Amino acid sequence: MENENPAYSIDTVEQLEALLGEIAEASRKKEVDFVHPIYQRWIEASPFAILATVGPEGLDASPRGDPEGFVAVADEKTLLLPERRGNNRADSLRNILFDPHVALLFLIPGTGETLRVNGRARITTAPEMLERFVVKGVPPRCVVVIEVDTVFFQCARAIHRSGLWQPPRTEHLEKVPSAGAMLAALTSGAVDGEAYDLALPGRQRSTLY
């Protein structure tokens, strides 16, 4: 942004702490360096997570979803995340090969709190791992093994402010461009957006796993 007054810039940890204040005691105590049994219950109930990675091109955040409990707790320091069929960009996997540090944000529909996990990941195609995550007769492409560094829950303020789990407003949905509309705009019409949207639901159903 041009013409921003540098006097208002936050450039040091000291400035940031002065702005935000002290960390609440509960916020300190909720963080542990292993998957506590109470946190395991949370992971086992979650059907959706966002996987954050870092690579040579920068940061990436990618959605992951399956039936609840799709991320398995192997032990108190290890999570197993199956990699399902996708668009083959494999941004997250490429990044893990460059830098193993990852973060997971678990969500449960209707629940305000979220669960955050930070750790280090590796990729495996061990047959016993793939067999563990077979769905409808189809194994995952690979499994991401995550060594847990920290786990803690996030309060519900962001979910409440966003109204994320509230019924969607029709006027809001009407403003959201479809996948076909976005591709048509990004390719200057080279992709037929209407045809793409018509074919998309069937293609997704047939290639879900």
From TrEMBL:
Name listed for the protein in its UniProt record: Pyridoxamine 5'-phosphate oxidase N-terminal domain-containing protein
Domain of life: Bacteria
Domain Pyridoxamine 5'-phosphate oxidase N-terminal: 39-155
Pfam families, per database record: PNPOx_N (PF01243)
